[in-house]
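Dear support,

We are seeing what looks like truncated structure output for some complexes. This example has two components. We would appreciate it if you could run it in full and send us the complete token output so we can diff it against ours.
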Amino acid sequence: MATDLRSARRAQNWGRLFIYGSLAAMAAFYLMPLWVMIVTSLKSLDEIYSGSFIGLPKAVTFDAWAKAWGTACIGTKCEGLKPYFVNSLVMVIPAVILSSGIGAINGYVLTKWRFKGSNIVFGMLLFGCFLPFQAVILPMAQVLGRLGLSGTIPGLVLVHTVYGIAFTTLFFRNYFITIPDELTKAAQIDGAGFFRIFFSIMLPAALPIIVVSCIWQFTQIWNDFLFGVSFTAGDSTPVTVALNNIVNVTMGRKQYNVDMASAMIAAIPTLVVYVVAGRYFVRGLTAGAVKG
Amino acid sequence: MQKPISLKDRLAAWLPQLVLTPSILAVFVGVYLFIAWTAVISFSSSKMLPRYDFVGLEQYIRLWSTPRWITAVENLFLFTVLFLAITIAVGLFMAILLDQKVRAEGVLRAVYLYPMALSFIVTGTAWKWILNPSLGIQKVVNDLGWHSFVFDWITRPEFAIYCVVIAAVWQSTGFAMAIFLAGLRGIDNSIIKAAQIEGASLTRIYLSIIVPMLRPAFLSVIVLLSYISIKSFDLVLALTNAGPGSATEMPSTFMFSATFRRNQMGVGAASAMMMLMTVAAIIIPYLYSELKEDRNGH
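Here is the complete output from our reference environment:
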């Protein structure tokens, strides 16, 4: 009996070792690219070409970061990523606010003011979450041209708002459906109107899902490449397009340290959001898979 | 006094629909009308600019007789199968391990998931550097003393597509893990306990009891990963730029270059319609079943 117990204990120890070993190995694999990006961005070009890849830099230098931010050449201009980073910010802030705001009020109507056909409307909106954008970029380019918005930041804001509504509506609809109807009914009896109920009952209760929606939209729009590369060119491109242009420069000795610093600069905003509010980010990610 | 109140009341009754109207219009135009518009272009002889004539299926015939498109479709198939199989296997493995009451679970989860927050352009840039044979992984292993080690897939047309798989798996495993973990947490612990008392081994319990119970999670992961793989565009562009040659061409990159680089708008529109139909064939039944279950559940 005692030996049985001991061998069981030993098997359990091996099991724990296997579990932690596997988890640690996978963690190393997932962290490796980030590590490589950071250390490469802090090395001098000579050190990189002398064959230093995964190790720490011998001498830390921020030259590559300075160059990526301020002087790297994209096309014929040598102003670094800074103007494009600003473009992305100017694009992402209004697009996030607009799409989340519209999604909130849509979700409210679709749960608390249902009408005949509101389920069909929701179903139609839902397909928009899974639209392959290739199927709409040609007409969108035509329309933006006719509205005088092609190649502009407001044009991108419009596009991201229109195609963001599907997801934000889904978030808010699935959240508001859990708020009991009695609450809104009681408010109605007390004489509160449509907007009054929305602003003083629904919105205050919706804080977590507002965060989810904003984070999701921020990540999606910041990371977008297809719309940026299809609808803008030159000065008005977002940072993802500019990053791709920096990396694809073929002239001269390839500046891997500047490439990696540029990639880090483009990645930092979404990484910061992820570190600060990862919990909400995960909720947004799984919302497409979990029904309300 | 009576009339204005009734007008106000009537307006109030219509207010919800009125508020929803701009969104319905935007989605109707931006999604459904634009799809129809793309379809119209795909039946026309459009090249550099859209032309609204009718040439029947000519562009589709041209599309399917373009070797580049055939490569793209084959690549998509190969990529999707590998990407799904590996992502699901590793994601499920991770989720099961994380579900064994491990320490630092939160930190590990965050580490596995952070790539999902990155742009595919960033991922592509990083992996392009890592897979670079003269300075990347291959060099590191060579320097460690294994001189014959060769890992130059990214420069070889017949292997470059596997590089796209590696980077895509790296980016998306955390996502599969998160959904599986949510599924595992939803399973009643007493079932496992009961099976253990019956004397079943842990592997047995997982394979024959737990995994079958994760069916909804599997469905979600498969559908969402298929969707990611069909629209994967930025990753391919940043990692291999559809090369070497056209070895890693995908439908999404084909559509883009036909339309914006080679002035074949009609062919581009036809390829976009093919992509749309593929996505619709997967997504519509999925949405339908999700919504139906939803209605039954409530």
